Amino acid sequence: MEYIKENLQEINERIESATKKTGREPDSVRLVAVSKYFPLEAILAAYDCGQLVFGENRVQEMVDKAKVLPEDIKWHMIGHLQSNKVKATVECATCIHSADSVKLLQRIDRLAGECGTTPDVLLEFNMSGEESKFGIDASLASKLATAAAKCKNVKVTGLMTMAPFGVPEDELNNVFGGLRELRDQISKESGLKLPELSMGMSGDFETAIGQGATLVRIGTAIFGKRDYQR
Ligand SMILES: *Cc1c(COP(=O)(O)O)cnc(C)c1O
Predict the structure, then answer these.
(1) Is residue 160 a contact partner of residue 98, using CB atoms and an 8 Å limit?
(2) What is the structure's pLDDT at 128?
(3) Ligand 1, atom 11, residue with closest C-alpha
(4) Ligand 1 centre distance from Cα of residue 191 (Å)
(5) Distance 217 CA to ligand 1 centre (A)
(6) Would you put residue 74 in left (φ > 0), alpha (ψ -120 to 50) or beta?
(7) How remote is the CA of residue 131 from the centroid of ligand 1, in Å?
């Protein structure tokens, strides 16, 4: 799987030049290699190049992979979470990008306490108003700020969003810049630092970095086209 090595190298170079372009430090952006639907060998190929952070969107798939892959891999849950999957998630993931309601956030916090784990949690917002997307409506930001400040076990470290596909650059800038402003607002209201902005995928990560992304979630550009039949 030589192509994975080459793709990973190219993506890391593009991340670095996008950070430089906006006067940011290269290590201010971390790559989450989105390995959902890809086999163990693909993950190991990236791991062998030094990639340690992988993103999955289905809990069972993440847990199954974690069981057999190297222990120093950090698993990030990036997909919508059903309440009955929260326990398995807090036992496995070091970061959950997809807390999309007060109720889910409270459940993550409680179960992490029971399991004795301390995953980082990001609040997922729907900035585009698309009905097909998960995420909290921006009008609920203050409610989330209050809930985030009350978490006892997990640390809420930032915000996450997904931009709509195939929209012009200025709309992407609105979505990503909007998430940054929302972060500033929630940070102020909650007293939490919220350094992380998880935004940007294969098609739009450079724009996201320009708007302050600290975590970019990239799958296709590293591993190739996904086979959703798997
Ligand atoms: C699949 C997925 C990604 C990666 O998308 P690519 O276009 O393959 O880079 C990023 N974020 C989330 C939430 C995803 O589900």
Answers:
(1) yes
(2) 87
(3) 217
(4) 30
(5) 6
(6) beta
(7) 18
